[in-house]
Specification:
The protein has 577 residues and is an alpha/beta fold. It has 21 helices and 14 strands. The longest helix is centred in the N-terminal third of the chain and has 36 residues. It holds the Pfam family Mutator.
């Protein structure tokens, strides 16, 4: 197998390579396109992020100190300016992480706040709730940290809930402003690509709080195709803690009085299965697109894993004169090949060395995806490239089958390349072909996955990679293994969208809106992390890095296959019996 140079994570630039890397084309580019400098989606998004005039205080900074050690030393060297006597220090009025420093001398008492105040509360309490939320930590985690660090008793439940309510309202407001800006960028991109300005192309995907799609909470997003930013999201919840506590009293007068007051704030906004959350959320977002942004979503890029598009057609949000068009995510279409091959392997017992191994399945799936990506402008070319993969891998020296392989001196097929160069192709030795037992079983799969109706939906080469990337960001802020309610999931979804769209600019805007003072460390960290994000994503989007990742995955699959054959089956249900 061809090996590729690996990039080192801890080095962003290397003297062995030119500083400006050339762009060799993405999966949708033609080979004849002029090379330009590579720029990742993250770099493009952050370059469009507005730099706000943040309220910035270079003098603000928090430090960990041990109260007794520091203030005992100070009391030994300080005297009061008025009475010329030594002073003592104590603490009082503890509220969360904030407190009052009491200076005691013969003149009396003087109170000094340990940090800035917001109304009657300490700013540090808002700050730690926000920062811990960015780490996916809730009140119990904050209190564990504060107590084991001997800082304080932590934050009370009422204080925490008040800050969370404020954080929810603020993040929602900033998210809505970010969406309006993202829609404006998508309109401008439509104009550049000579598309109707108010007819947007969006990709949609859902993610759930628990593994799989059986969960009480689900987040569904719509992302603009050209700008790559979240333009709308919806959080669905099939659970409300208040309703659960009252479920045994539903027929009482007391319950009716309680529910009348509770209904506007009920956390349950979805009736039905978890699998239906994505469908209902997308329908809801399509229904409000004209009201919120004055646009229509004319093209929907879906994954085919749910009946979302059918739900959109049944809803018919824009009337019969404006029908929504479906496009397939190429990545998910590629996964169909792997799924079908693995099922065929199980059903027909085609495993074993030389047959339908996991490494071969991944290779066939990869070649199937490349056949689509390299021919996104023609269904016929897609189909020819897909069938070329099958017949090329069935070819032998005695029975070569290269009629579907691309011709020309730059062809990936050595047989057709030799023909173009005027050489004798029969001198080329074929590698080991697909096993004769495998060929008749996978031929129907190649035929079915090269249907015209499926490949027509792949025209344009669309993906949901942006949605998948966003989904992982949400659950870093709201870990799946920890319990949380709808409000926390919504806060995490809003913050994730802001980070996804505008980077840490969004967090600094959020801090300003919460009246949290931005200090020197926060500003320098924002600049450093955004720069690292751009450099990392530019590096990962380069052709060499992509090839290295693919080579590593294929090598790992082969290694695991070899180890499983060598060691035998060591793990499985009832294997110890």
């Amino acid at each position: 197998m061809q090996s590729y140079p690996k990039n080192k994570r801890n080095i962003s630039t290397r003297s062995a390579k030119p500083r400006k890397r050339q762009f060799y084309g993405n999966q949708h580019s033609n080979k004849n396109e002029e090379n330009t400098e590579a720029q990742s989606t993250s770099a493009r998004k952050l370059s469009n992020a507005d730099e706000e005039n943040y309220h910035y205080s270079p003098l603000l900074g928090y430090r960990f100190i041990e109260f007794f050690t520091v203030f005992t030393a100070l009391s030994e060297i300080l005297i009061c300016r008025d009475c010329k006597l030594p002073v003592k220090f104590e603490e009082s009025a503890n509220r969360g992480l904030g407190f009052k420093i009491v200076v005691i001398c013969k003149c009396g008492l003087k109170n000094i706040s340990s940090g800035p105040l917001i109304n009657n509360g300490f700013e540090v309490n808002r700050r730690i709730v926000l920062v811990m939320r960015l780490l996916g930590v809730a009140r119990e985690g904050i209190n564990l940290f504060c107590n084991m660090m001997d800082i304080c008793n932590g934050i009370s439940e009422s204080t925490y809930n008040a800050i969370i309510s404020l954080l929810h309202t603020t993040t929602q407001s900033l998210f809505q402003a970010s969406c309006v800006k993202a829609v404006g960028e998508e309109k401008r991109e439509n104009e550049k690509h000579e598309r109707p300005i108010l007819n947007l192309k969006v990709s949609g995907d859902g993610t759930w709080k628990k593994r799989g799609f059986k969960s009480m909470y689900g987040v569904t997003t719509l992302i603009g195709y050209y700008c790559g930013k979240v333009i709308d999201l919806a959080v669905k919840s099939s659970f409300c803690a208040g309703c659960a506590r009252w479920k045994n009293k539903t027929n009482t007068e007391e319950y009716r009085e309680w529910f009348e007051e509770h209904e506007p704030n009920c956390q349950e906004n979805h009736k039905g299965s978890s699998g239906a959350m994505e469908v209902e959320a997308v329908k809801e977002m399509f229904s409000r697109s004209e009201e919120l942004f004055g646009v229509k979503y004319g093209n929907y890029i879906g994954d085919g894993d749910s009946k979302t598009f059918k739900g959109i057609l049944d809803l018919n949000p824009y009337g019969d004169e404006f029908r929504v068009v479906k496009s397939e995510c190429i990545g998910h279409v590629q996964k169909r090949m792997g799924t079908r091959l693995r099922k065929t392997k199980r059903d027909n017992h085609l495993g074993g060395r030389g047959k339908l191994t996991e490494a071969l399945i991944k290779k066939l799936s990869l070649y199937y995806g490349l056949a689509i990506r390299r021919n996104v402008n023609s269904v016929k070319d897609m189909k020819d490239a897909i069938m070329a993969t099958y017949y090329h891998m069935c070819s032998t020296d005695d029975k070569p089958s290269h009629e579907y392989c691309p011709s020309g001196s730059d062809s990936w097929c050595k047989w057709r390349k030799a023909e173009a160069l005027g050489e004798n192709p029969k001198e080329i030795k074929h590698p080991t072909p697909l096993h004769p037992d495998v060929q008749p079983h996978i031929k129907p799969i190649f035929d079915d996955l090269s249907r015209d109706d499926l490949l027509e939906r792949c025209l344009g080469g669309h993906t949901q990679n942006a949605n998948e990337s966003y989904n992982s960001t949400v659950w870093r802020l709201c870990p799946k293994h920890l319990n949380s309610g709808r409000k926390i999931v919504e806060i995490s979804a809003f913050i994730s969208a802001g980070l996804f769209n505008d980077g840490l600019n969004f967090i600094l805007q959020l801090m300003n809106s919460l009246q949290i003072v931005i200090g020197r460390q926060s500003m320098s960290y924002k600049e450093k992390i955004d720069e690292q994000r751009v450099n990392r994503e530019n590096r990962r989007s380069s052709l060499t890095t992509k090839q290295a990742r693919q080579a590593c995955l294929q090598e790992l699959a082969k290694k695991n296959e070899f180890l499983e054959r060598t060691e035998g089956l060591l793990y499985g249900p009832g294997i110890a019996d």
